[in-house]
């Protein structure tokens, strides 16, 4: 797993799905010079095609647990269940759950954007990859920080036939400084087979 925000390359190399790139661009425009936009600054009418794949997470019981405050219809359809109010990390293996929780905690506590590459497994043996963005956003109360995110599967969801989808593995994870500008970072040419945590990435206090 690659965890760093220092190397630079093209944003397209890092984020495969165009929907994720559009979400990132809208978030950056909405926040301006601030570390994060307020919820009221976001105009999802500009993201009509992406909106069904978006979600909002809020911390629940500390920084180790997050629940879906809102979940788009396409996201719920892809996961084959209603996600609003559900544990966002339910079903992930212990190590992946801990790594993702710490990254999401950095989004809300340190206002660091995060990018995940994840894979799911269907009950018919299909393995489906996806890009997931997690971006800090000030809640309506003006104090709390929620996670504005989007889950964008690789491929055409309309051609997949399955009844159940479960988390399979976390292929990549990055945290970024500078309001997401470093999302142009390039991952290593060959991703290592084993997870390796680099100080400054998930090595949070």
What's this, in brief?
The chain has 205 residues and is α+β, with helices and mostly antiparallel strands.
Q: How much helix, percentage-wise, in residues?
A: 10-25%
Q: Strands of the largest sheet, in order across it? A: 2-1-5-4-3-6
What is the CATH top level name? Alpha Beta
Please tell me what the overall shape is. globular
**From N to C, what is the helix and strand string?**
HHEEHHEEEE
| Alpha carbon gyration radius | 16 Å
CATH architecture: 2-Layer Sandwich
Q: Tally the helices: what do you get?
A: 4
Our count of domains comes out at: 1
SS-derived structural category: alpha+beta
Mean pLDDT, to the nearest integer, reads 82
Share in β-strands: 25-35%
CATH topology: Beta-Lactamase
* E-strand count: 6
- The CATH homologous superfamily: PAS domain
Low-confidence parts: 1-13, 180-205
* Largest β-sheet summary: 6 strands, antiparallel
């Amino acid at each position: 797993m690659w965890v760093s925000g220092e190397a630079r390359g093209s944003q397209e190399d890092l984020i495969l799905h165009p929907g994720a790139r559009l979400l990132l661009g809208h978030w950056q425009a909405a926040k301006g010079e601030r570390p994060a936009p307020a919820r009221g600054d976001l105009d999802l009418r500009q993201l009509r095609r992406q909106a069904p794949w978006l979600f909002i997470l809020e911390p629940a019981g500390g920084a180790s647990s997050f629940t879906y405050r809102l979940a788009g219809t396409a996201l719920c359809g892809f996961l084959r269940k209603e996600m609003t109010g559900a544990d966002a990390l339910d079903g992930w293996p212990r190590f992946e759950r801990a790594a993702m929780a710490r990254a999401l905690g950095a989004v809300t506590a340190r206002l660091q954007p995060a990018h995940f590459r994840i894979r799911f497994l269907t009950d018919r043996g299909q393995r489906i990859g996806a890009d997931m963005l997690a971006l800090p956003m000030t809640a309506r109360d003006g104090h709390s920080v929620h996670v504005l995110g989007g889950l964008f599967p690789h491929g055409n969801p309309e051609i997949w036939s399955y009844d159940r989808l479960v988390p399979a593995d976390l292929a990549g994870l990055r945290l970024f400084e500078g309001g997401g500008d470093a999302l142009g970072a390039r991952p290593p040419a060959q991703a290592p087979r084993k997870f390796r945590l680099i100080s400054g990435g998930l090595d949070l206090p």
